[in-house]
Amino acid sequence: MRLGEADRIVTILTAEHGKVRAVVKGVRRTKSRVGGRVEPLSHVALLCWRGRELDVVSQVESIDAFRQIRSDLARLAPATTILEIADQVAEQHAPAGELYAMVLGALRALETEASPLLLGAFCFKLLAIEGVSPIVDACARCQSPGPLVAFDLGEGGLLCERCRRGQAVSEEFVTLARAVLTGGLAWALRQPSSPATSEVERIGLTAVERHLDRRLRSSRHLIEGELRGA
């Protein structure tokens, strides 16, 4: 956010202090040395002075600029959505070590390879750390082993034919969701793009929006683009 003629207010996700809003003075001047270091998707080390309402950034050291993500729309779009989700979940000045580690890990993974499952996997893992991990090993309502044919976060996760409600899902979706939430994340992220990876992303985003009780601006563009592509 712009502030005055040359300053900017930035929002920072930290491990120890959660979400921090701080002023970066002079950042909009053409000769500013820190302008590029406080852009979105910047991983930095910061020194801030604590203020009454807003902190003030006094030093910035760049750790990782995630250049591959910035130069590739296929990586930039999910990265932007991840940041928006983190902004909605994190609380100001409340420790967020697990969320911070997960966001940083997701960005580092995207920097290395644009996995088509990464955003969907992030959504499901986020629900887990928020304490509402979907049940994926049996029907969330009757505990039947399956076959599981639908997903509804309000019911707790996957549902069998008898209990089905919410969003219909494929067998491949069930396999991927189980892998993400039960220790097979590395395998899942290596899977090629398919209708099932798109399904995980779409349903994961919808579930996160339900949990947050709000629509995600960036996710709408992803879903609309996916539908146009189809």
Description:
The chain has 230 residues and is an alpha+beta fold. It folds into two domains: 2-64, OB fold (Dihydrolipoamide Acetyltransferase, E2P); 115-229, no CATH class. The protein is built from eight helices and eight strands. The strands form two sheets. A five-stranded mixed β-sheet has the order 1-2-3-5-4. Helix 3 (97-112) packs antiparallel against helix 4 (118-129) and helix 4 (118-129) packs parallel to helix 7 (195-212). The longest helix is centred in the C-terminal third of the chain and has 18 residues, at 195-212. The two termini are 36 Å apart. 30% of the residues are buried.
Descriptive key words:
five-stranded mixed sheet, OB fold (Dihydrolipoamide Acetyltransferase, E2P), 230 residues, alpha+beta, 8 strands
Unreliably modeled segments = none
Count of DSSP-assigned helices:
8
Structural class assignment = alpha+beta
Domains, number: 2
Shape, per Cα inertia axes: elongated
Beta-strand residue percentage = 15-25%
Q: What's the helix-strand series?
A: EEEEEHHHHEEEHHHH
Mean pLDDT: 90
* Major β-sheet annotation: 5 strands, mixed
- What is the gyration radius calculated from CA atoms? 19 Å
Helix fraction? 40-55%
The rounded distance between the terminal residues' Cα atoms is: 36 Å
Counting DSSP E segments of at least 2 residues, the number of strands comes to 8
Strand order of the largest sheet: 1-2-3-5-4
